Amino acid sequence: MSSLQEIDQEIVAYLLEAEREKREVEKITTKYPHLTFKEAYELQKQLIEKKEEQGGRRIGVKLGLTSKAKQEMMGVHEAIYGYLMVDMLSPEWEPIQFEQLIHPKAEPEIAFLIDEDIQGTSVTAEDILRVTKYVAPAIEIIDSRYLDFKFTLVDVVADNCSSAKFILGNKWVSPKGLNLAEIGMYLAKNSEVATVGTSAAVLGDPAAAVAWVVNKLGETGQGLKKGDIVLSGAITEAISFQPGDTIIAQFADLGSVSFTCK
Ligand code: OOG
Ligand code: MG
Question: Could you list which residues have their CB under 5 Å from ion ligand 2?
């Protein structure tokens, strides 16, 4: 019988290898069906620590499953979170290399740039707006390491919530004076609109989603730090893309962000 610690190390190595080799793998709950949600976050923590040992650096946090529709689809009542690492940030002018990914999808989000350390368990959306220097349009590129992008909540949390890349728009604006809960947007692929949505889809207000993650982190004595970037969660469903495709997310009030896939 392997010890829990050995199982954890095996799972973390399995997921990191899938990412490195750009190969989709069977989800971990097939082999370990009794893993809990709490253990999944422990696995995620170990996976991030491994990335840090290998030279990676955390630059922020991302939320997932922030829409009621997506939560219902997964049969859960809570959002999830993962970490953004410095090598996930892709400049807008640099093409996304398809062969560095497995089966990527793009989704539109609003990014927050945090200007002051914040930690607690009763943090509100107002508190988040107070410590947010800028918001910006963002596209997250998710790339689950699991076969056919299919997984349970435990699987996806352990896999750092499918994180792979993200792109930030070059126009940063103060959230003061904006109604962040009502920003309309569309995502287009090769000039054809693919999805449309409003920021209200993100837990009613993306700032409330960021407050949720701060409170969640607060339960284990963690928080956000000055300079952190937060991706507040997808506003619409994610769309697939192929080499040659150009994707643009166009937001009211915030401007746009785009990338081309090579
Ligand atoms: C999980 C990650 C979802 C979001 O913004 O909802 C996510 C997935 O759907 O693969 O990043
Ligand atoms: Mg996302």
Answer: 140, 234
